């Protein structure tokens, strides 16, 4: 594969755009932030606690000729969306005069590998607060900043359509996120704003590293679940998000894009 840079005219599909990526310091979020940066967007890399990781993503985007800045806001508590946008507003004019945002990617999320019998009320509340409530209010607070013709991409999961009782709460949050996507697409369509979900399957990220990496048997099993016969990579998801963020996807809205490599076919 030939490496692409911001100087390649063919990939500057987001020139003049501003993108916000939550959970942008690692895994799928990092890949999304870096891809949107290569495509020409000014990227706000939102993170909860790991500033060093977020700074690393910003540095890589800038090294590729792009523009980016980190913003910190821990999700899952009341007021988190307002805090995130306040951090965004405090910096945006330095990087994109005039403010505003064109692409919102709700990627941040947490998992709960717990079945119905073991899940606590506290655990239930936490996973819904981060995975559902935070995106809901990030969008609500962001609508006055989101320009007409903008894009919202929610990172869902194949767990929303596949029965996986061992992560029942996590799958339920992603089902709720897909319903949120559907309703937003209807509401925001008159403004030319598209809203879509991207639903990954098993992806080789730090979250899955403990059971996946260095375990040939686990990797082979994970790969066998996908029709394409391999484990997903963060870039597989980032490339789909880049398409949805671009003008090429202007006629796609209210959809859940399966990004599992054909799991469960």
Automatic annotation (TrEMBL):
InterPro entries per record: KR_dom (IPR057326), NAD(P)-bd_dom_sf (IPR036291), Sc_DH/Rdtase_CS (IPR020904), SDR_fam (IPR002347)
Molecular-function GO terms, alphabetical: oxidoreductase activity
Protein name: 3-oxoacyl-ACP reductase
Cited PANTHER family: OXIDOREDUCTASE, SHORT-CHAIN DEHYDROGENASE/REDUCTASE FAMILY (AFU_ORTHOLOGUE AFUA_5G02870) (PTHR43639), SHORT-CHAIN DEHYDROGENASE_REDUCTASE FAMILY PROTEIN (PTHR43639:SF1)
Organism phylogeny: Bacteria, Bacillati, Actinomycetota, Actinomycetes, Streptosporangiales
Similarity annotation: Belongs to the short-chain dehydrogenases/reductases (SDR) family.
Domain Ketoreductase: 17-201
The entry's keywords: Oxidoreductase
